[in-house]
Amino acid sequence: MLVSVAGNIGSGKTTLTTLLAKHYNWEAHFEAVDENPYLNDFYEDMQRWSFNLQIYFLNTRFSKIQELRKKGKDVIQDRTIYEDAYIFAPNLHSMGLMTSRDFESYFSLFELMNSFIQPPDLLIYLRATVPTLVNQIQKRGRDYEESIRLDYLKRLNERYEAWISEYEEGKLLIIDVDENNFSENAEDLGEVIQKIDAQIHGLFEAQK
To answer: H or E stretch including 137?
Structure first.
């Protein structure tokens, strides 16, 4: 089984992935932020490095999905390939930070790759308002995230909501991070786990 955690920058994906992997004894896989050769350059000059960054993400996520499916284990993954294609890349394009030519090349490559992969068995979406995202970004204190603008986070949030409203690839669980502090509150984490148990065991099938 493959469970994926999606959400905007600072929504708590890595934290929840870690907590759920420990609870369920799932194998956890995280976004390799520190190994990304383009991320620092991207935040310094988005227009110059946006296409390179998105291609790097696309390639690494595709390779990781193929690898995880071959393992045949229960796995939880921090961030999905869909977020790059439906949120980050089109957002960069709409902001004038990626040319139409580059975006079209990128998206056609995504569509080809997408035809070779299975979607996650359960997608967990962490919904959070911009103030909550900013608070959590500041708490973790990553240098390259200091220059992230509020309007950038807002644009991403709008695209996340549009994507999730049309998501039909498989089971979906939405967690409201403004209301659920799973990172610091054991009771809130327990509530998330109960909802996941219900999804995994198909208790909501009759309500669909």
So the answer is: helix 130-140
pLDDT in tens, 94-153: 999 999 999 999 999 999 999 999 999 999 999 999 999 988 887 776 665 666 778 889
As given in the structure block, the two tokens for residue 82 are: 């869909």
- Write the single-letter amino acid at 96: G
Q: Which amino acid would we find at residue 156?
A: L
Ordered by start, the domain boundaries in the chain are: 2-201
Region class of 161: left (phi > 0), else alpha (psi between -120 and 50), else beta: alpha
Based on the residue annotation, tell me whether 188 is a catalytic residue of this protein.
Answer: no
Convert the pLDDT of each residue in 154-195 to its tens digit. 999 999 999 999 999 999 999 999 999 999 999 999 999 999
What is the rounded end-to-end Cα distance, in angstroms, of the chain?
A: 21
Residue appearing with tokens 């709409």: 94
Which pair of structure tokens corresponds to residue 30?
Answer: 């995280």
d(CA 139, CA 11): 12
Contact 137, 61 (CB under 8 A): no
The CATH number of 2-201 is: 3.40.50.300
Catalytic residue among 45, 74, 78, 176: 78
SS3 (DSSP) at 55: helix
